[in-house]
């Protein structure tokens, strides 16, 4: 604001639009553009999370259902224009991890294992 008490109309407009920050400068771009953050999308492929009532089915059937859920998630994520997502596969014996990678390779979806916290190798980052 100016020292003599006058109100800067541009600053007032920006304040009313929710576009004001303490680092205001007439030369800076809209803070809305800078503050757009990509939301973190995670999809937990643990069978217990997907189907809590179907614990007694055979392992091969569990894997098939997990891969179907993955396919549904990928289709839905593309429709919603999700750019990146984390697929939580867990440690276990690595069967699910291997099958998820195979499906992603088949669909030509870029992916990489995430070794950093909070996943510690239990997740795959996909770029859709």
| Residues in β-strands, percent | 5-15%
Helical coverage, percent range: 25-40%
Uncertain runs are 22-36
Characterize the biggest β-sheet: 4 strands, mixed
The number of helical segments is 5
Strands in their spatial order, largest beta sheet: 1-2-4-3
Helix vs. strand class: alpha+beta
Topology pattern, helix = H, strand = E: HHEHHEHEE
**What is the tally of beta strands?**
4
What's the architecture of the largest domain in CATH terms? 2-Layer Sandwich
Could you tell me the CATH topology label of the largest domain.
Ribosomal Protein S8, Chain: A, domain 1
Distance between the termini: 45 Å
**What coarse outline follows from CA principal-axis ratios?**
elongated
Q: Rg, please?
A: 23 Å
Query: How would you state the average pLDDT, rounded?
Result: 83
Number of domains: 2
Q: What is the level 1 CATH name of the largest domain?
A: Alpha Beta
Protein described:
The protein is of the alpha+beta class and 128 residues long. The chain folds into two domains: 1-37, no CATH class; 42-127, Ribosomal Protein S8, Chain: A, domain 1. Helices cover 39% and strands 14% of the residues. It is built from five helices and four strands; from the N terminus they run H-H-E-H-H-E-H-E-E. It has helices at residues 9-16, 31-35, 47-50, 59-79, 95-106; strands at residues 42-44, 84-88, 110-114, 123-127. Strands 1-2-4-3 form a four-stranded mixed beta sheet. Strand 3 (110-114) and strand 4 (123-127) form a beta hairpin. The two termini are 45 Å apart. Mean pLDDT is 83; it is low at 22-36.
Layout of strands and helices, then pairs:
Elements: H1 9-16, H2 31-35, E1 42-44, H3 47-50, H4 59-79, E2 84-88, H5 95-106, E3 110-114, E4 123-127
Parallel strand pairs: 1-2
Antiparallel strand pairs: 2-4, 3-4
Helix pairs in contact: 4-5
